[in-house]
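pinning this so it doesn't scroll away 📌
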Amino acid sequence: MQAKEQGEHWLVGLCMTELCKAAGFADSNHLVQRDLVFLCDRIESQTGVIISLSTIKRLLNGQFSRLPQIATLDAIAITSGYQNWQQFKSSKNLEVNQNVKANKEKSAPRAPKHARVFNIRMFLWAIPILLITMCLGAMIITRKSAFAVSKVRFSARKVTGNDVPNTVVFSYNVDSVAADSFFIQQSWDKNRRVRVFKHNYTLTDIYYEPGYHTAKLIANDKIIKTVEVSIPTDRWVFYAKEGLTKGLPQYIAADGVKARSLKLTKDDLLKSRIDIQKENAYVNAYFPSQITSSSDNFVLKFRIKVDELKNEPCPFLMTEVFCQRQLMYFTSTLKGCTSELRSQFGENNLNGKTNDLSALGSDVRTWQNVEFSVKNKNATISINGSKVFSASYQQSCGLITGIGFISNGLCEVDSLHMKTIEGKEIY
């Protein structure tokens, strides 16, 4: 390996050490799996670049024969607090040069004054030329990259109508892009990522859950194209999952809409062969084909309670307004369990461990009258006629794509109405 490459490898290790310190990890040599996942999520949230667990491990351990792609290097540098990889590299090289210069000055005789002045003038004269050369090089690289990405094609087509599961046919063309690997990811879920290849142009995949999804075409660790995939239902659907973010849905074959209310029974679950002794999340969801109303201005009113299936210490319910972008939901549970709550309004993600969400606590086992409203990106929650919580966000979540109620028991819902702030009926 050449000396320059060895220096670059050393800089990658140094940058990863600084990245870990910036993320709160003092020792980068003893990270566990959840720490690595946290680093991947931190990099993606700050840069939009997706770095896999295997890649983050190789970077930390120096297990790579050639330098990573510049997008990856820029991402770790930005997450470490620098503008890009070039700035990080320049700053470290400057530190090294300053140390070398200081050591030389201690041992070497000083040059005559007129020679020092000449060297300074030559240095100052060379700076503009160096900067112009660097800018031109960066412009050429950026234009080539933009041209290659502009030729990329990515689209999606559903095989069936408003059914789940639903096979989607992805058409893509990445022949113009220089990268080591390519992937198509169904949605936000990184586990739903499939590798694709140049000179192949079709991938089919199954969507098991309804909703409005954003599929991603990824080159190495960078998203280069997205396409929106809508899997509507035009009716209420019911299913169980092992967890909100894992496992495949188990569909509940029952008419849960009774007398203008949503209600499932234990018998409905047993008939659908749902094991009620498991730690399941039970989902009631509605996704219309037509989406026209903004998620930044609405009023949702309903009455709800949780029918327990077993002796849960912390029964909870989650109310979600599904959106094109970002998440919009809040959770409620018994007052003594509110440390476990999570809520999100746009980019404003609130964890009950680090935020006081106790005002969202209520006896969810009895009927609760709830109003969830958003006006100009300001969300307000009222329970039983009293305003209990508010939060704001900056980035629009797009249009409303559906409504959902989730619990570790069975949600019973009635008196459900949804309107725009101006009073136009949504549901």
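📌 and the second one:
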Amino acid sequence: MTSKPRLFSGMQPSARSLHLGNFASALTQWNQMQSEYDAYFCIVDLHALTVPQDPEQLRESTRRTAAQYIAAGIDPKASTLFVQSHVDAHPKLAWILNTITGFGEASRMTQFKDKAAKQGKDSASVGLFAYPMLMAADILLYQTRAVPVGDDQKQHVELTRDLAERFNSRFGRTFEVPEVMTLKEGARIYDLQDPASKMSKSSTSDAGVVWILDDPAVTAKKIRSAVTDNDREIRFDRAKKPGVSNLLSINSALSGKGISQLEEEYAGKGYGDLKGELAELVVETLTPIRNRTLELLADPAELDRVLAGNADRASEIADATVRDAYEKVGLLLKP
């Protein structure tokens, strides 16, 4: 039994690969956190079902995401790395939380409103509407103390806190009330072709996204083709020089050098120098992760065995939590 505070975070399985933004923001910070926390990292495949999925592709994407986590430094022995659908307690607790969530409360979730507006009211699913309650269940099952999230997920964690406090007040102390841990702003990576937008798997152009599983030559070409501006001065200015600022941010995230140090190093140099050296740095960083990922994917049975063992570990805590919650609300427990 560890005395470390518990941490939970998750990521949906990507279509074919995680990208540089995932690595430079979430994964690098998760690596540091797993030594400081009793860390639970979840591949949230049930959440992925809120939009249409190809079944075979979803299964493959789940394995690929897990392999990239491990290749990027998440140790499945030091942390509990598992697949959401492998732990039956997640949808069980989500239903209990659905019953104590107000319709108006759920309707005010910004992400639901935004995605429903894009999809159209008749196309938005009940699953999309209930997404925040499933996320709350993910967190509360493990008596989580810390939840590292980006700005777009803060509202969901606040709802999770409200639901934990509401349940505890009505039925007695059951859940730890989690705290929001904001990911560091400095690691935010933007699209190489549209530096006003975050790098994303849903980007309109593949040329702006550096995928971890890209061939190194493709990665280098994308960096060298990144949008900059007509000036030649290399300095950080998010408003006036978003492309150059993005390249400096990527360099800083991967090299550990401060932005001001990089500005000094590139004083008097041109964009070709910045892009060329950054291309080498990105390839040098991502190639070992890519190679290790491909090794893991070459033996899917072993990868599945590791994930199953971690799911068993997660289930021990999650099953006890959901059993306690079931008993508290008055459900007749199976002997």
